[in-house]
């Protein structure tokens, strides 16, 4: 079963506006941890500004590497559970999963636009899982270097998030563990520019991204991908548009 990774990347890119509230504060706070720790020393030690900046950059990169690694693991689990043989043996199940994946994208777009908060139940349900993962973060102690940031990112990659869950349906549709991991890698790379910028630019960028028109545009684009997929399922789109939607084999063009 083949899935175009381009729309998944773009969904991550524009859907990551949702990350402003979910992860932006975490990234900004953790990336500043080394500098804050130094400033709290009872006898201040002169620190080269370039060194502090470099450490912050490494921390943000390490955090996101761990986060995307968790996404890939979740994608591998989702794709592996469904299995290519299962979906290919049941065409009706494959088509139903295709519809569900695209309708989830439409719901995500409406969620981003604050037009319909349909995905909140997913985030609330996922908090049960996070309650088991969150205590592990206490073992890290004060977060400082890239190693601890990588572990923190790996743990926070399981943070309940309606956007991640929406794309996990696509990973399940991929039909194999490797394809599911690839789907979530493409999604994670799409979210990377936003979260790297949030980690380095902080509150100023968060303020900009919370503007109504930014969320509206992002939501429209994400919902558009879902609607394109639905149109393909009913055979109502030109032949050149399937590259802009989730495109598993066997779904009517």
Report on this structure.
The chain is mostly helical and 253 residues long. Helix content is 75%, strand content 0%. It has 13 helices and no strands. Helix 1 packs antiparallel against helix 13, helix 4 runs parallel beside helix 9 and helix 4 packs antiparallel against helix 11. The longest helix is centred in the N-terminal third of the chain and has 34 residues. The C terminus is likely disordered.
Low-confidence spans: pLDDT under 50, at least 5 residues?
A: 33-48, 249-253
Radius of gyration in whole Å, from Cα?
20 Å
Give the strand tally.
Answer: 0
Secondary-structure class: mainly alpha
Please report which band the strand proportion falls in: under 5%, 5-15%, 15-25%, 25-35%, 35-45% or over 45%.
under 5%
Mean pLDDT: 74
Helical coverage, percent range: over 70%
Order of helices and strands: HHHHHHHHHHHHH
- Overall 3D form: globular
Describe the sheet with the most strands.
none
Question: How far apart are the first and last residues' alpha carbons, in Å?
Answer: 15 Å
Summarize the structure.
By secondary structure, the chain is an all-alpha fold. It contains 13 helices and no strands. It has helices at residues 5-15, 19-31, 33-39, 49-82, 84-89, 91-112, 120-133, 135-138, 146-156, 162-174, 177-201, 203-209, 212-233.
């Amino acid at each position: 079963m083949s899935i175009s990774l381009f729309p998944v990347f773009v969904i991550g890119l524009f859907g990551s506006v949702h990350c402003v509230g979910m992860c932006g504060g975490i990234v900004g706070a953790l990336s500043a941890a080394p500098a804050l720790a130094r400033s709290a020393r009872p006898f201040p030690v002169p620190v080269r500004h370039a060194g502090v900046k470099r450490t912050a950059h490494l921390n943000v990169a390490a955090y996101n590497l761990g986060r995307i690694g968790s996404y890939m693991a979740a994608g591998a689990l989702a794709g592996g559970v469904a299995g290519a043989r299962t979906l290919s043996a049941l065409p009706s199940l494959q088509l139903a999963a295709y519809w569900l994946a695209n309708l989830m994208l439409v719901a995500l777009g409406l969620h981003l636009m604050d037009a319909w908060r349909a995905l909140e139940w997913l985030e609330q349900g996922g908090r049960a899982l996070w309650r088991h993962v969150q205590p592990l973060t206490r073992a890290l102690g004060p977060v400082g270097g890239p190693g601890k940031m990588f572990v923190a990112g790996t743990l926070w990659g399981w943070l309940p998030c309606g956007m991640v869950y929406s794309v996990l349906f696509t990973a399940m549709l991929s039909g194999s563990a490797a394809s599911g991991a690839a789907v979530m890698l493409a999604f994670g790379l799409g979210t990377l520019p936003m979260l790297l910028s949030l980690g380095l630019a902080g509150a100023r960028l968060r303020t900009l991204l919370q503007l109504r028109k930014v969320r509206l545009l992002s939501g429209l684009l994400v919902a558009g991908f879902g609607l394109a997929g639905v149109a393909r399922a009913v055979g109502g789109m030109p032949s050149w548009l399937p590259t802009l939607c989730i495109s598993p084999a066997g779904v009517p063009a």
